[in-house]
Fold:
Amino acid sequence: MASHKRFRMRVDALFAVLLTLLAAASANASPITNGLVAEYRMDGNLHDDAGAANGAMVGAPSFVTSPYGGQALSVSPGNYGRVPAATAFHPGLRSFTIAVDFNSIGGFASPVRHIPVFVMQGGDFTEGILMFIGGGVGDPSIIGATLSSGGGNSQVLNDDEPASLLNQWHNVAVTVDRTSSLLSLYLDGVQVRQSPLTVTSIDPSQDFLFGAYDYGFARNGHARFISGQSLLLDNLAIYDRALAPTEIATLAHISGVPEPATWVQLVAAGLGFVAYRVRRRTIRL
Structure:
């Protein structure tokens, strides 16, 4: 009986380890893969889990525990992430979606500044995409996106209804639908603004930045973090299509902790069933 008991304990320990590994491997993976061209889970690096556009750290950004599982990237002045333009996604005239979880932990030094969450930029930002949060002194209360296709052709869409974005995790998403010619902005899975699309082809020529902004006064690749805020970023996903509102809601982690992927649940259930059968068998032995 003692040997059977030890065997059962080893089986239980084995399945516990397997379940832990499965959960960790997919804790903050995107639940939507159709059209996914780039995904950054921020789990200790800026690896692109959906393609080959791996990023690199500039300065010394750090990683902290994420409420979504795994880790999140912590950026601050002079410390951010960069993805080479040569390997990054370029929308052109295609539809696309960009979604990211963020937490503003630094507040604002002045009332008119924006914190860049994600920047897909061109020379002196004459074309590209800027996703930002902004607002009054000390307390960000605006989310938005600026799209530019060069030659002064740009479009801004923002929402100033959130009471506060400070020290809270949120998800912001932007969709560009070329078929319906609509630009949409989402906060935590809910559409907060929509506008007819006016920009043409978006072909950024410089590197993509996580939590920094190369603007006209910071040429030659000298990225600057606006106003000295600190920011946490996690689960940045880029799609080559406009996701439906229901899909955006799935990405948003509205509950604060994402639900495990379906395949993880099925595998867990299967392993649990096998463990149960093994216990029954060893008990009979």
In short: The chain has two domains: 1-27+260-285, 32-256. The chain is about 20% helix and 35% strand. The first helix runs from residue 2 to 26. The two ends are 8 Å apart (CA to CA).
